[in-house]
Every structure is written in C-alpha cells, then in structure tokens.
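Hi support team,

I've been running sequence recovery on a batch of backbones for a student project. Most finish fine, but this one hangs at about 90% for roughly twenty minutes before it completes. I'm not sure whether the input is malformed or the queue is just slow. I've pasted the structure tokens below so you can try to reproduce it. Let me know if you need the job ID as well.

Thanks,
M.K.
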C-alpha cells in the first residue's frame, strides 16, 4: 500500500464525503433488525409510490464510465444468533418507491433537498439493501415506536448522526410527529419527544467523542487550531449516557482536521500543524486512543444500554479531490468489485475493528454496525451539485471556474435554525432527501 503523507491526508479531509441520506434509512433498518433479533419477525408495510414533482429543465448528471477496480469484500459470516451477516450483500431495485420525499418530510434542509434544487434523475430512490443470505424487512414506524415505548434512543457523534436522526424523524412522522423539546445554542444537539409512546429521541453533538476545544464559528470558519484532550472523554455525552436505553455512537472524519493533542494537560503532538513548533503525530494515534477510552467507558458503565458502534463512512469522489475537478455524479450503485475503499477510510475502519475486538474481549455490551462497505457502493446517494438551487443556472450566470467545479461535490452550506449562511469547505454531511 502506498505511503500517505500528512499533506495528502489533510487535502482529503475536505473530500471525505459521509453517509448519504439514501443510506440513512438503511442504517436505521439494520439497527432495527439487530435489536429486534429476539422479537418475532414483522411483515412488510404497504407504501404507495409517491409522485415526484420536478421544476428543473436541466440535463441529468454525467454518468461516468470508469474501469472497475477491485475491492475485497469480507466473506459472508454467520452471526451468533444463526442469522446471516446483514452487512454483506448487494443493492437491488425496489419498485415500491420511496418511504418519504422532500414533500412529505419537513426535516430535510435546503442543502440536502436535491429534488427541490433541480436534480433531474430519480433512480436513486428505487434501491434497497439486500443481505446476501437473508431478507431485510421494510422498516415499520408503528412497530418501532411500539417497541420504543417508555424508552430513550440517542445518536452520538457528528453530522452523520444528525442525518440518521433526520431520516428517522421522516419515517416516524408517518405514525407520530415528534415534539422538539430541547436544543443547544447552535442547534447541534437536539431532542424530540413522542408523547403517545413516551419515547425520547436525541442527537448529541460530539464529533471527537473526546474532550475538544474547537474555534469555529457558525459558518465553519476557524480562528485557531482545534485542541483535543486524548485522556478525557467529552462530558456532553458521558454525563447523559446513563439515561439512554439504546445508543448509536461513532467517531469519524473530524480526526482529519488540524489538531493539537493534549494528555495530562500537556501537549504531546499535533496533526497537520506546519506553522507550529510541535511534533507531528498521525491521526491514527489520536483516533485509536479516543475509541479505546470510549469503549472502556461504555463497558464499565452501570447503564447497560444496547449500544451500536458504527464504522467509518466512505469517500465517493472520483478523478480528483473537491478542489481539483473531483466529482460524485454517479446515478446508480456500484456492484461488488467495481470500487475500492480509499486509504484513509481503510485505516480508520481497521482501527475501529481492532478497538471493537479488543473491547469485546473485556465484555463490551455493544454491537458492531459495520456499514462502511455497503455505504461505499452508493455514490448516487450524494446530492452533488444539487445542494445548491439550480446549480447549472447559477454557473451560467457567474461562469465556470475551478471553484464552482470543485463545489460540485463538497461545498458546505452552514445552517442554524434554518438560516442559510455562506459557503465553506469543511467536514460535514450531505444527503439527498431520499430512501434506501
């Protein structure tokens, strides 16, 4: 495997696109299936196809023909309960149509609303995940809420978790609308309550899981380098952990930001800080240490919440980075053997699997949510240029440039309370208001 320098990695921090809204519904369904393994099987619900309204006159995104490269997917394995490995399989056509769209769910934000913004193709709506040796039933919001009666469910992490929750809210609203009962100052940590089921759903913003001081404003503009305390977990989530019955937790791509590392309140190194007189340390060290501490905390907690650890989410750029002509305009899924996992994603997933295995030997009360490879196969779930309204109309007005070309895959629109701010290129999550 080729060497990967800090400069190369930091360039990729802007191009590592995370799980798409199209995949969020699948991930929720997989989690649902995992913690329902001891319950009776449930039947599929009937969903009518929803007519899509499009006001665009733009051509479809270019379908890129690339020679396939090989990826070695894990061999099919049987879980301890005798069922198949839910994370090994293929994306297959699903003519039943989307469970929800931008017209039926109000938690889809402007930059996520690819349909309203003019995306002309709709094929990405008609796929579902098919495990290799078993059937994954369609998610039932009614049955889910009944099982969650008098329970609490939390998603802990970065913007990926926020999108998981947004997707779940879209689905559950078909049965009961959740009431927003809490938000922090920046609207990053939020909570909803479903009174008919006495069910609480939370998203907790903790992108490092460890304690961090981040000098970013609401627009994502940094005034100083991030400070990360590797020997201290973020009490934003640890002080609430005992109140949850179910948890989905993950680290992620924030570890690719420029960061100074502290232990015992002393600087022990940094990641990509060329203007600092500090020893350079790879992000691998920090990520492994934070995950180790996180899993030890969960293992030792008196609250035995059923916890899912979600693995890293993949990059979908092709032929370059976000600012060098890279694009993500595929209109259909990959098949097994047609795409390779990126180096950084491979390294992060390896660390995750190793730390999970180490913690499992200590009696970790956690299930592995290994969605990296199945997510890798869905490049079409990214909104691409359609995070902007009628992007080609805008381009025709201002002219084509390297900037607008780069924005086709990774411009971040910052939001707070629904207010659109300026554009920033930084780690974030984008998805097209669609189903898996």
């Amino acid at each position: 495997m080729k060497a990967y320098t800090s400069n190369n990695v930091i360039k990729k921090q802007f191009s590592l696109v995370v799980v798409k809204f199209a995949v969020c519904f699948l991930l929720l369904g997989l989690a649902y299936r995992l913690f329902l393994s001891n319950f009776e099987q449930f039947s599929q619900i009937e969903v009518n196809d929803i007519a899509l309204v499009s006001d665009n006159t733009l051509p479809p995104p270019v379908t890129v023909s690339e020679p396939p490269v090989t990826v070695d997917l894990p061999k099919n394995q049987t879980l301890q309960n005798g069922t198949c490995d839910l994370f090994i399989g293929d994306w297959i056509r699903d003519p039943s149509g989307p469970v929800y769209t931008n017209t039926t769910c109000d938690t889809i934000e402007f930059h996520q609303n690819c349909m309203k913004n003019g995306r002309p193709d709709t094929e990405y709506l008609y796929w579902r995940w098919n495990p290799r040796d078993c059937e994954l039933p369609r998610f039932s919001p009614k049955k889910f809420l009944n099982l969650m009666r008098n329970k609490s469910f939390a998603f802990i992490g970065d913007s990926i978790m926020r999108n998981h929750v947004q997707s779940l809210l879209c689905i559950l609203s078909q049965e009961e609308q959740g009431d927003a009962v809490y938000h922090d100052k920046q609207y990053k940590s939020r909570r909803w309550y479903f009174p008919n089921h006495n069910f609480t759903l939370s998203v907790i913003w903790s992108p490092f899981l460890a304690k961090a001081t981040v000098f970013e404003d609401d627009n994502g503009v940094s005034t100083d380098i991030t400070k990360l305390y590797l020997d201290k977990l973020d009490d934003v989530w640890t002080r609430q952990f005992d109140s949850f019955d179910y948890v989905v937790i993950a680290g992620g791509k924030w570890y690719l930001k420029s960061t100074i590392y502290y232990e015992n309140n002393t600087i022990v190194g940094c990641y990509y800080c060329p203007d600092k007189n500090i020893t350079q340390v790879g992000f691998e060290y920090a990520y492994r240490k934070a995950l180790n501490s996180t899993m030890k905390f969960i293992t030792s907690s008196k609250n035995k919440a059923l916890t899912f650890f979600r693995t890293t989410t993949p990059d979908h750029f092709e032929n370059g980075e976000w600012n060098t002509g890279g694009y993500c305009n595929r209109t259909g899924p990959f098949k097994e053997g047609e795409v390779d996992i990126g180096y950084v994603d491979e390294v992060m997933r390896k660390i995750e699997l190793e730390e999970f295995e180490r913690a499992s030997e200590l009696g970790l009360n956690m299930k592995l949510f290994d969605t990296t490879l199945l997510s890798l196969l869905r490049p079409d779930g990214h909104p691409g240029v359609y995070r902007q309204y009628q992007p080609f109309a805008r381009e025709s007005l201002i002219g084509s440039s390297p900037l607008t070309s780069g924005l086709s895959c990774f411009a971040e629109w910052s939001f707070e309370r629904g207010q659109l701010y300026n554009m920033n290129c930084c780690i974030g999550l984008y998805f097209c208001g669609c189903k898996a």
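--
Follow-up from support: It reproduced on our side and the slowdown came from queue contention, not your input. The CA atoms of residues 15 and 321 lie 6 Å apart. No action needed from you.
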